[in-house]
Design brief:
The chain is elongated, with a radius of gyration of 16 Å. The two termini are about 25 Å apart. With about 110 residues, it is mainly alpha-helical. The protein is built from 6 helices and no strands. The chain has one domain (about 1-105).
């Protein structure tokens, strides 16, 4: 999971933040990104794997769900990158620019 957190942090442009700040931000926004990934990958799951996927969904283990989707959906990595980019664009366009004080806090 650490490697996934690191990759996601890089994709979201959070690498300059402390690990603690990265994890807090990811925890807040992970569900939004996860839902987008689910919506786009579920129709691509082969029909013969749907029953197995339902069982995994019932377990509510996001890591198991993502691992299953990575294995079953050919375009999974591209979809993940795309969903992260969409999230970044939406949040960047809806947030006001950082103040100089906020920038100092982020940079330490």
């Amino acid at each position: 999971m650490r490697k996934e957190t690191s990759n996601t942090s890089d994709l979201l442009g959070l690498s300059s933040l402390s690990k603690k700040d990265q994890e807090e931000i990811l925890e807040i926004h992970a569900d939004t990104i996860f839902q987008g990934i689910l919506l786009r990958t579920m129709p691509r799951i082969p029909e013969e794997s749907l029953h197995q996927f339902q069982n995994i969904l019932d377990g509510k283990d996001q890591t198991a769900i993502m691992n299953f989707l990575r294995k079953e959906v050919k375009e999974f990595d591209a979809i993940v990158e795309d969903e992260i980019a969409i999230f970044k664009n939406l949040t960047a366009s809806s947030l006001p620019p950082l103040t100089p004080e906020e920038k100092k806090t982020i940079r330490g």
